[in-house]
Design goal:
The protein is α/β, with parallel strands linked by helices. Helix content is 47%, strand content 13%. It folds into 2 domains: 133 residues, Response regulator (Rossmann fold), CATH 3.40.50; 55 residues, Arc Repressor Mutant, subunit A, CATH 1.10.10.
Length: 213
């Protein structure tokens, strides 16, 4: 597959250089554009680049929003997440938004370049640990007990937004609630799902069908 142009989105200059080097190794002659924020990246959406390497933790928003914006454009951009987050709370919202791959920043530019070259052969760029996590996710799990305490409609709203990767403040803004109120709902969700972190809550919500794809 020929990639004449690519977009690298990361708030750290060192990471942008690392990703750009991997692109140059994978696709000699590629023209790489860089963006450090979500706002900067959105300026490159039209016309969309053939390939984009996207960090999720941007200073002004989530990289998931950029994936959604690129998916709304005509044509198809290969959207590949490049991040340090290997938890389900980041992985599944990115895949639901339309990410074509998910790689971790724990490898050399040469290793990432090999993954990117595999695109031409129809191989999705996935770090090994991410591939294993996906396999585990789709393995059958026991049905929840009949005595399981159901979430309220508002708790389900909070959980759905948390599973999309929104912060507590962002959830409060979307639902027009105070941050203190949202924190109370999240505490109740933890108790009902028997979890102790946001990532575990998002995973349990997805597994139990409370948050759809």
């Amino acid at each position: 597959m020929e990639i004449p142009r690519a977009l690298v989105v990361d708030d750290l200059a060192g990471s942008r250089d690392w990703l750009s080097r991997a692109l140059a190794l994978a696709f000699p002659g590629v023209h790489v554009q860089q963006a450090a924020t979500l706002a900067d990246a959105l300026m490159h959406v039209s016309p969309p680049p053939p390939l984009a390497l996207i960090d999720l933790g941007l200073p002004d928003g989530s990289g998931v929003r950029l994936i959604e914006a690129l998916r709304a454009q005509p044509g198809h951009t290969l959207c590949i997440v490049a991040t340090v987050f290997d938890d389900d709370a980041h992985l599944f919202p990115a895949l639901r938004a339309g990410a074509d791959g998910y790689v971790l920043k724990d490898q050399s530019p040469e290793a990432l370049a090999d993954m990117l070259r595999g695109i031409a052969a129809g191989q999705p760029p996935l770090s090994p640990s991410i591939a294993r996590r996906l396999l585990r996710h789709f393995q059958p799990i026991p049905a929840p007990a009949d005595t399981e305490e159901a979430l309220t409609a508002r708790e389900t709203d909070v959980l759905r937004l948390v599973a999309k990767g929104l912060t507590l403040a962002e959830v409060a803004n979307v639902l027009e609630l105070s941050r203190h109120t949202v924190a109370g709902y999240l505490k109740a969700i933890y108790r009902k799902l028997s979890v102790s972190t946001r990532a575990e809550a998002a995973l349990e919500a997805t597994r139990r069908g409370l948050v759809g794809y």
